[in-house]
Amino acid sequence: MGGNLGVRAAPFTYAAHVLGAAAAVLVLVWCVHFRGGLALDSANKNLIFNLHPVLMLIGFIIIGSEAIMSYKALPWSHEVNKLVHLVLHAIALVLGAFGIYCAFKFHNESGIVNLYSLHSWLGLGTICLYGVQWIFGFVTFFIPGAAPTLRRGALPWHVLFGLFVYILALASAELGFLEKLTFLEGSGLDKYGSEAFLVNFTALIVVLFGASVVVSAIAPAHIEGPHGYAAISVD
Predict the structure, then answer these.
(1) Rounded Cα gap, residues 98 and 75, in angstroms
(2) What is the DSSP letter of 111?
(3) Residues 6+ apart with CB under 8 A from 198
(4) Residue pair 218/1 in contact by the 8 Å Cβ criterion
């Protein structure tokens, strides 16, 4: 589809790297500067929660995005790119699961019930689907022995389902930003203050970042010349 529109993957890949770096810096500024820092164990339970958005955005979404783009963007052989793709997705999955653990830990130690919001339902469902996608990819495309016809038939579905799960991850992140900011504003945070502005701006950056990654994934690395009949000159 991207090729039909004359769109190459490279510009969107570069844009995604810049936007991903910006999103990572912004979420760290929010959690460290405005929210007080990060901690796995602390008397201030909010510091435990702060690990959740950092791990989910940087560890899960950004590293997962790099895994998606690596398959096409890296200049190495197909087998090396496939290995990088697999390893980066595994790292994203582990960090995402740990980020969800931090949210549960914060709730349990603060006396807050778990899994009561759409964000939590969608987030937990997304991490489970991500794990299923990784296992399917590992068994089908990485372990030797799968029939070539099976791999060819499964590849379009693997790509489609992967993008679906990725979009779910982005939607879950946006719901998370909205939910947390709503709670903070309900507790007295200035709705037009610098922190509220930072959170909303970070969420917008994540939307643009995700869009760049999706276009980078579906657009071809190179655009082929137009196919058609050349004009025939008549002498």
Answers:
(1) 31
(2) T
(3) 26, 29, 30, 34
(4) yes
Domains of the chain plus CATH, in order, are: 7-216 (1.20.120.1770)
Contact yes or no for 70/81 (Cβ under 8 A): yes
Count of CA atoms in the C-beta half-sphere (13 A) of 148? 0
HEC string of 145-171 equals: CCCHHHHHHHHHHHHHHHHHHHHHHHH
Q: Quick one: how far is CA 49 from the chain centroid?
A: 20
Degrees, nearest 5: CA angle 126-130-134? 175
Tell me how many helices (H) and strands (E) the chain has. 7, 0
Q: For residue range 116-152, what is the model confidence (pLDDT) as tens digits?
A: 999 999 999 999 999 999 999 999 999 887 788 989 9
